[in-house]
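PROTEIN DESIGN WORKSHEET
SECTION A - STRUCTURE
LENGTH: 125
TOKENS:
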């Protein structure tokens, strides 16, 4: 599987821009774990000390934890895609080893499976 260098550069740029966007979003309500730079820890909000404010804090914290997990998963997918780019195996389906079409990779740069294999996985679930 051979992609042109300008295509790979475009993919890398897309991935790095999305990584920055996700990290910016995460830092709006969380901070990086000092022991693991790939992990974020949601900040507990402080709305006040009244009972209804305390309930709102717990709800907001719970919601933020869910968002944190989702965004961290997306960051992990980006990191894996960047590793595949650096390793020279970007764009190869991890199930059938066929080349993933450029159109799919442009639409979803973190893709690691071709459409046929992804459909098959979806049907099995």
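SECTION B - SEQUENCE
RESIDUE ASSIGNMENT:
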């Amino acid at each position: 599987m051979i992609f042109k260098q300008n295509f790979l550069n475009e993919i890398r740029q897309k991935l790095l821009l999305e990584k920055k966007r996700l990290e910016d979003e995460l830092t709006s309500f969380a901070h990086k774990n000092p022991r693991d730079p790939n992990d974020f820890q949601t900040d507990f909000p402080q709305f006040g000390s009244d009972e209804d404010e305390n309930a709102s804090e717990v709800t907001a914290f719970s919601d933020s934890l869910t968002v944190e997990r989702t965004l961290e998963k997306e960051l992990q997918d980006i990191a894996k895609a960047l590793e595949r780019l650096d390793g020279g195996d970007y764009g190869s389906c991890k199930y059938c080893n066929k080349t993933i079409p450029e159109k799919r990779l442009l639409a979803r740069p973190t893709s690691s499976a071709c459409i046929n294999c992804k459909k098959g996985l979806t049907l099995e679930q």
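SECTION C - NOTES
Residues 5-91 form one domain.
Residues 51-87 form the longest helix (37 residues).
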